């Protein structure tokens, strides 16, 4: 009863290498290229020691950027993550200094739980202001960015907040400096967080809803998806990731100040975009994000190890990277 | 090759043996097409027949792979990206090309603003805009923001824009899809007036009656091949339809199946008001196909969205099998077995950047969870089932929804909402902008769903559709249900009387 004429104008053929989305591959190709460049600049670069150091140092941005992948995929933006790190870390240290729980082990555990709760709450606040308040996420999180930063400055009275108990410090230190089966703990945490995030984004109902909401709010709404709930949840996941980053940050220095996490939001967003996630929402790429975070850290590392570019230019180089990443993304975009 | 052409008059624009391939796929095969001065030439064919591609090539938005284009008898290479406007070749896009934040006057002069001493001459531009709009018999305020206009008015602005640019050849892609009858009449009057002045039109449309009424010649494409060019008077609607699909159109509409009078009422709406809609009440019985007719802007979509819970209602009650629905809760309505299929398949129906499967299972994703995570195999199975059930034809299973033809998109959208296994299905404009063959298929799907005992509401601006499918037809006018027609009463004349306000039933 129908004509056999209306099949769509796309070629009939097996899936070939041409079907691979170049945007998904590009970040990994760039990483590979950087490794080669690094090896040529300085033979020490490619050593396992150096690379493991780089990966460890990228942990904060990488983990925060995993959360940012959710927020950006769902079509929003969170500028407050840097301030949130400072705020959550300050509260964690203040709580540990308060000495409400005598047993140091129990105290540490309680502090970690509290950190995760505070982080989620900060995310929830961002989410509610954006969705219930119907305020552009750019403006809403610009506001909370100021609030979290201001609260930190107030808590620290403009100075630093330092973990006082030496016993606590000694107990907590391995969380950043330790290693499990030769793998530094921060790298392990990156892998676990990313694996869970990838699972959530690609293999759960929530992940599918994030993609739908980020691609088109209207289509999501007309498909019976609770759009505001999905968006708010993405902000909460972001807050949780910030809290996890804080759990690694506090044992490293045992101290925070009003300048902790300054400009980390930009690095996190850069990592996400370099990783191939579209800034306008839709397709999120968690592993790409991690790759993006490594690239940012590697560039800094190569500049340190080489003599021909001043390391003071690192901000400028990172800025250049995000612009190049956007240009590459657009040129690789397949036409709809 | 070309029939009925006056040998003395040279065509303005000719496409000679035009072929076009995208990658490995050839979509046009050596097509001949010409436009004489002062003629209205209809370009017809099913979706995917190559009409849009041909229009794009003849207006410079695409370059042919082979073949040539002659303008006034001279071979030309048309400048890309709309620059052919300077040669008098204007295209009015199906999807509007207007900036929401500009005024009507600013839109008309966009890109060729008139200035005096380096300062924009707003007064002149406003006056000229008014003149063009008056000529068109349009009431649109030249100072209104585009964003504040109704869809039909936006279409008028597009047409005014083309006219104000002294176009010689105007391509119109489905210009009447969003226009009411009156507006269509005005548009046709203007088109004829411009034809007298020597302007040529290429009119792409699925509406056979409009083609018969307006055009001088018809060219039919099928599968990217030229099939026939003939004077419109030499053809009739049936003949064109057959040329398009290449086979006899057995009955377009399936047999109606009227539910018993005492059949259970599954959906009951009482005194519903929302926005423009006032005090709407109706019942829907099991296995019934209820039509909603009326002019564009009569409040049908608003009413249905309020019934489905996609829009808050100011007052009134909606009950499914006696159970009252919470206002504004679409998900609750879904759970009660009510589905709503939007008329805006690109903006609200499908994720254009995603594949078919993601779209298909979006609304009913819970069915594909195993221990809380997604099971791709189960999704793939559902896709296979849907492809068979709704005859979705694609050459590449991984094609993104945005690249599918309108007909296949519509089938996918229907398949998507059927995934939640609804018993009450509200379909808003079931066949907007799709070809005859697919239309017929969709009509049969609807009838089959009703025979399964599901209840269906068909909202449509195409009267034959409502008449051919529905056993009862509600007519809306200015936000109210003004008539409920049954049996023999269901006819174009009756519906028109109610829709235009000549008659109304006080009872409903």
Helices and strands, with pairings:
The complex is a heterodimer of chains A (336) and B (508).
Chain A: H1 22-41, H2 48-57, H3 59-73, H4 81-98, H5 104-131, H6 137-155, E1 160-162, H7 166-172, H8 174-177, E2 179-180, E3 183-184, H9 185-203, H10 205-215, H11 217-222, H12 227-253, E4 255-257, H13 264-274, H14 286-305, H15 314-332
Antiparallel strand pairs in A: 1-4, 2-3
Chain B: E1 13-22, E2 25-35, E3 40-44, H1 51-58, E4 66-71, E5 74-76, E6 89-92, H2 104-108, E7 115-116, E8 119-120, H3 122-135, H4 151-164, E9 169-173, H5 181-196, E10 200-204, H6 208-214, E11 217-222, E12 225-231, H7 237-245, E13 265-274, E14 277-285, E15 289-294, H8 300-308, E16 315-320, E17 323-324, H9 330-335, E18 338-341, H10 345-349, H11 356-361, E19 369-370, E20 373-374, H12 376-390, H13 406-418, E21 424-428, H14 436-451, E22 455-459, H15 463-469, E23 472-477, E24 480-486, H16 492-499
Q: How would you characterize the overall build of this protein?
A:
The complex is a heterodimer of chains A (336) and B (508). Chain A is mainly α and 336 residues long. Chain A has helices spanning 22-41, 48-57, 59-73, 81-98, 104-131, 137-155, 166-172, 174-177, 185-203, 205-215, 217-222, 227-253, 264-274, 286-305, 314-332, and strands at 160-162, 179-180, 183-184, 255-257. Chain A contains 15 helices and four strands. In chain A, a hairpin with a 2-residue loop joins strand 2 (179-180) and strand 3 (183-184). Chain A starts with 21 loop residues before the first helix and ends with a helix. Chain B is an alpha/beta fold and 508 residues long. Chain B is built from 16 helices and 24 strands. Chain B has helices at 51-58, 104-108, 122-135, 151-164, 181-196, 208-214, 237-245, 300-308, 330-335, 345-349, 356-361, 376-390, 406-418, 436-451, 463-469, 492-499; strands at residues 13-22, 25-35, 40-44, 66-71, 74-76, 89-92, 115-116, 119-120, 169-173, 200-204, 217-222, 225-231, 265-274, 277-285, 289-294, 315-320, 323-324, 338-341, 369-370, 373-374, 424-428, 455-459, 472-477, 480-486. A six-stranded mixed β-sheet of chain B has the order 6-9-10-3-11-12, with helices on both faces. A six-stranded mixed β-sheet of chain B has the order 18-21-22-15-23-24, sandwiched between helices. In chain B, helix 12 packs across helix 13 (406-418). Mean pLDDT of chain B is 86; it is low at 1-8. At the A-B interface, helix 9, helix 10 and helix 11 of A face helix 9, helix 10, strand 20, helix 13 and helix 14 of B.
């Amino acid at each position: 009863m129908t004509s056999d004429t209306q099949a769509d104008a796309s070629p009939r053929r097996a899936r070939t290498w041409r079907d691979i989305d170049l945007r998904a591959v590009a970040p990994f190709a760039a990483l590979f290229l950087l490794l080669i460049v690094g090896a040529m600049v300085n033979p020490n670069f490619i050593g396992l020691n150096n690379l493991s150091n780089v990966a460890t140092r990228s942990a904060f941005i990488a983990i925060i950027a995993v959360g940012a992948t959710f927020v950006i995929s769902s079509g929003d933006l969170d500028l407050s993550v840097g301030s949130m790190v400072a705020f959550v870390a300050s509260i964690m240290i203040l709580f540990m200094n308060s000495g409400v729980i005598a047993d140091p082990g129990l105290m540490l555990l309680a502090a970690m739980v509290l950190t995760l709760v505070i982080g989620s709450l900060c995310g929830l606040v961002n989410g509610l202001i954006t969705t219930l308040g119907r305020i552009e996420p750019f403006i809403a999180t610009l506001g909370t960015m100021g609030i979290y930063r201001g609260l930190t400055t107030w808590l620290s009275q403009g100075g630093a907040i330092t973990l006082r108990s030496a016993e606590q410090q000694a107990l907590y230190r391995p969380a950043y400096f330790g290693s499990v089966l030769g793998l530094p703990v921060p790298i392990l945490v990156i892998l676990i967080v990313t694996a869970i995030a990838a699972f959530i984004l690609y293999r759960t109902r929530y992940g599918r809803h994030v993609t739908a909401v980020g691609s088109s709010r209207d289509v999501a709404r007309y498909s019976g998806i609770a759009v505001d709930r999905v968006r708010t949840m993405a902000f909460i996941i972001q807050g949780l990731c910030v809290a996890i980053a804080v759990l690694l940050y506090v044992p490293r220095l045992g101290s925070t100040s009003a300048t902790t996490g300054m400009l980390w939001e930009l690095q996190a967003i850069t990592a996400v975009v370099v990783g191939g996630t579209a800034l306008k929402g839709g397709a999120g790429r968690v592993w790409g994000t991690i790759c993006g975070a490594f690239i940012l850290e590697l560039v800094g590392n190569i500049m340190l190890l080489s003599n021909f570019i001043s390391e003071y230019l690192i901000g400028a180089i990172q800025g250049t990277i995000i612009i190049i990443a956007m240009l590459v993304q657009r040129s690789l975009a397949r036409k709809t | 090759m070309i029939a009925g052409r006056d040998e003395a008059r040279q065509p303005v624009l000719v496409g000679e043996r035009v072929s076009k391939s995208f990658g490995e796929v050839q979509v046009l095969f050596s097509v001949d097409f010409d436009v004489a001065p002062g003629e209205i030439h209809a370009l017809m064919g099913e979706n995917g027949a190559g009409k849009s591609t041909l229009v794009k090539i003849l207006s410079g938005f695409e370059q042919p792979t082979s073949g040539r284009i002659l303008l006034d008898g001279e071979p030309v290479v048309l400048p890309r990206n709309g620059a052919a406007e300077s040669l008098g070749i204007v295209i009015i896009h199906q999807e509007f090309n207007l900036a929401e934040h500009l005024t009507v006057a600013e839109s008309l002069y966009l890109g060729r603003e008139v200035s005096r001493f380096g300062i924009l001459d707003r007064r002149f531009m406003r006056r000229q805009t008014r003149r063009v709009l008056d000529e068109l018999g349009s009431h649109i305020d030249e100072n209104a923001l585009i964003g504040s206009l109704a869809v039909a008015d936006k279409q008028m602005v597009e047409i005014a824009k083309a006219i104000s640019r002294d176009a010689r050849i105007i391509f119109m892609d489905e210009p009447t899809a969003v226009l009411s009858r009156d507006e269509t009449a005005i548009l046709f009057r203007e088109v004829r007036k411009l034809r007298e002045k020597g302007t040529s039109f290429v009119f792409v449309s699925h509406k056979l009656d409009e083609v018969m009424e307006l055009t001088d010649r018809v060219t039919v494409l099928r599968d990217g091949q030229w099939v026939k060019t003939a004077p419109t008077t030499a053809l009739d609607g049936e003949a064109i339809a057959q040329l398009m699909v290449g086979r006899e159109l057995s009955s377009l509409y399936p047999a109606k199946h009227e539910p018993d009078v005492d059949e259970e009422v599954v959906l009951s709406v009482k005194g519903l008001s929302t926005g423009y809609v006032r005090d709407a009440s109706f019942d829907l019985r099991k296995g019934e196909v209820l039509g909603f007719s009326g002019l564009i802007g009569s409040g049908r979509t608003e009413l249905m969205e309020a019934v489905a819970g996609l829009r808050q209602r100011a007052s009134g009650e909606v009950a499914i099998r006696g159970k009252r629905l919470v206002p504004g809760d679409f998900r609750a309505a879904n759970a009660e077995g009510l589905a709503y299929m939007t008329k805006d398949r690109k903006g609200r129906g499908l994720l254009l950047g995603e594949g078919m499967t993601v779209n298909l299972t979006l609304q009913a994703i819970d069915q594909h969870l195993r221990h809380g995570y997604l099971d791709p195999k189960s999704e793939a199975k559902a896709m296979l089932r849907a492809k068979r059930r709704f005859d979705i034809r694609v050459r590449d299973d991984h094609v993104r929804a945005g690249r599918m033809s309108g007909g296949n998109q519509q089938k996918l959208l229907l398949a998507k909402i059927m995934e939640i296994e609804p018993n009450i299905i509200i379909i808003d404009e079931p066949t907007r902008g799709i070809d005859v063959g697919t239309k017929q298929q969709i009509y049969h799907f609807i009838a089959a769903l009703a025979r399964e005992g599901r209840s269906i509401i068909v909202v449509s601006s195409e009267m034959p559709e409502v008449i051919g499918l529905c056993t009862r037809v509600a007519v809306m006018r200015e936000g109210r249900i003004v008539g409920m027609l049954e049996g023999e009463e269901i006819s174009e004349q009756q519906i028109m009387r109610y829709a235009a306000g000549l008659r109304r039933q006080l009872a409903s």
